[in-house]
Amino acid sequence: MPDLNHLFLDFNDEISLSSTKKNNLRRGRNALRQKIKDDFKEKDRRVPNFCGQGSFMMNTIVNPLPDDEYDIDDGVYINGYSDKPKEEWPTTQTVHNWIKNAVDGHTSTSPVDKNTCIRVIYVDDYHIDLPSYIIKDEVAYLAHKKDGWVESDPKAFTDWFNNKVKDNGEQLRRVVRYLKAWKDYKDVDLKGISITILAGENFYSYDDRDDKSLLGTVTNVVDILEEEFKCEKPVYPNEDLFEGYSETKQESILNALKSLKDSIDKAINDEDEQKASEKLIKQFGDRFPKGETKSSNSSKKSIYIKTDRPGVLNNDGHSA
Fold this sequence. Notes:
Elements: H1 5-15, H2 19-42, E1 49-53, H3 55-58, E2 70-77, H4 92-103, E3 112-113, E4 118-122, E5 126-130, E6 132-136, E7 139-144, E8 148-151, H5 154-168, H6 170-186, H7 192-201, H8 210-227, H9 247-268, H10 273-284, H11 294-301
Parallel strand pairs: 2-5, 2-6
Antiparallel strand pairs: 1-2, 3-4, 4-5, 6-7, 7-8
Helix pairs in contact: 1-6, 2-4, 5-6, 6-7, 6-8, 8-9, 9-10
């Protein structure tokens, strides 16, 4: 049976952001930070702090499919209220207005005021979400447009995942990327944060074999979801991200995961690398590399012929 690790590593290179793309995204993010700083200074407000969050900061972001966008999150931390009671804080809508007005006109598309953030849309395939927070007594509160100031700490989640990587190695980060790319291609109704939690809590480490690590991780995820379909956030407020999912939605997600598990298992046990890769391409799309046929593998191996005599260099009978 083939060792498919090299195909998965090539796939990881294909779906990972290039250094050029990372720098472009950082430039867009930093430009927005400067716009907000300048606007707050102009309005005689205290300049906020910023903290990147989400998959970009955890380095699990993947290149989107052609019709999708990169999604970057950058937290805006409002200063000047940590020593005041919440009753004296500005309303969440007021804070949203501050951020929206500060970045308005930065791109050709008007910013979008969503419940949890202000979204700035760049025409070259990405957007940046700007959630805003106030920290009081070391607790971060998100400015939710409808629900008010809601306790939420994205930095704690980033720290949780990075600690998981420290304990388990970079293979965990790659497994999360594989699952996100699979989710995008198969259009599975799972959020990136759910995939990150499920993979982090059920990771199966296998040295030098991402194919077997992924199979073991997906197997563990299927097993725990069949026992109880839930995905608890590992940091406060520890909510179940699957709460309210209908039985139909649960079944759809489980069936997709079982199909992925079955395909990886069959691919690993297929003696022909090309046929194995074709099984995986059905799950991950054409970005997954195609393996070599069994015959081409055999021909490569047959280049070197083992004999009991020294090798002959020329037709004059002189050996090496």
